[in-house]
Amino acid sequence: MSIDSQKIVLVDGARTPVGSFGGVFKDVPAHELGAQATTAALARAGVDGADVQEVVMGCIGQVGPDAYNARRVAVTAGLPKNVPAYTVNRLCGSGLQAIWSAAMEMRWNDLDLTLAGGDESMTRMPFYDFGARNGYKLGSRELVDGTVMMLTDPFGGIHMGVTAENVAAKYGVSRAEQDEFACESQRRAATDAAKAAFAEEITAVEVGGRKPFTVETDEHPKPATTLETLAGLRPAFAKDGTVTAGNASGINDGAAAVVLASERAVAERGLTGLVTLEAVTTGAMEPELMGYAPVLALKALFAKTGTTPGDIDVVECNEAFAAQAVAVIRDAGLDPEKVNPYGGAIALGHPVGATGAILSLRVAKELHRSDKELGIVTMCIGGGQALAALFRRI
């Protein structure tokens, strides 16, 4: 049977804890985080790295040696040198795009086993000196922050936070709504159920150096957050704006990897899969309204699959900003109780190249924990784009 007539199965996976900006992973390159997630994902799936036929990793900060990011992940994780690898960059959707790209390659090239995921070190993005190569003539120059560049829309020259302000203004999302959403994200992430869910996802990371230490939990959550503390924060991107550091996602470091298999490989190898990838859709609109594009991708997904919002049991959205998350949930007709049941990026962080893979793994495991059938991962993407993917529990 050709693989193009079979489902693509997400067998299992793993993620690292998510580190804060300049935090526990400040000295750990992205590919090393990716390698640790990869090693754990293969072990949990019961797959030998030598049997993997392609590695696809999402990463935005492909700077210097990390231009070879996916290959470095594979080699560092101990996969044989004859296992090929490539890196994809769809900004915040990169981790989900990696899964989709691997699935498409499995169908096109009749592959049985691939590994997909994402890794990011937003902390380790360099500062740029664009005039150094050809020399300066006269006057002062500045170093340009690579992390800020990553988060700046090149079409309008505005920070992603300003696009969230635009969404809030155009689609009527108040400061109070944003703060309430952010506070709920922090509350959900601090529950015992959330901690148990994260423990199933996370593989501990060993950080070397003169004083080695182990990271086992996410660094970013702020469980003491209240509506009062959020209300006291100043707008971060516009003088009279509504977007603050408290109702926006974090700038973070982390990685995740999942093993994908054909139905044929699952049967022949006796693997136990979590979910099948049913469909993926895209959306695109004006870059200055970036965070609203998931509405388009979700509507396309419902139309493509013949499903409705009421059919969906759990949704994970990347929650880049409360402003866009509130608008997307409302205008796509999603049930807020089913969206990010364990909190989202406002509480947990958003290591941009990895988040799509983290959320895909979370949906897969949550469908089994809750004995439900259908889950969605959706991502807003810089430049006015979005992805949405439908998964079905096995």
From TrEMBL:
One function term, GO molecular function aspect: acetyl-CoA C-acetyltransferase activity
Entry keyword annotation includes Hydrolase: no
Entry keyword Transferase: yes
CDD domains tied to this protein: thiolase
Catalytic site positions: 92, 350, 380
Keywords assigned by UniProt, alphabetized: Acyltransferase, Transferase
EC number: 2.3.1.9
PROSITE patterns: THIOLASE_1, THIOLASE_2, THIOLASE_3
Alphabetical list of SUPFAM superfamilies matching this protein: Thiolase-like (SSF53901)
InterPro entries with a match to the protein in the record: Thiolase, Thiolase-like, Thiolase_acyl_enz_int_AS, Thiolase_AS, Thiolase_C, Thiolase_CS, Thiolase_N
Domain of life: Bacteria
Residues in Thiolase N-terminal domain copies: 8-263
UniProt domain Thiolase C-terminal: residue ranges: 274-392
Family recorded in the similarity comment: Belongs to the thiolase-like superfamily. Thiolase family.
Classification via NCBIfam families: AcCoA-C-Actrans (TIGR01930)
PANTHER family: ACETYL-COA ACETYLTRANSFERASE, CYTOSOLIC (PTHR18919:SF107), ACETYL-COA C-ACYLTRANSFERASE (PTHR18919)
Record protein name field: Probable acetyl-CoA acetyltransferase
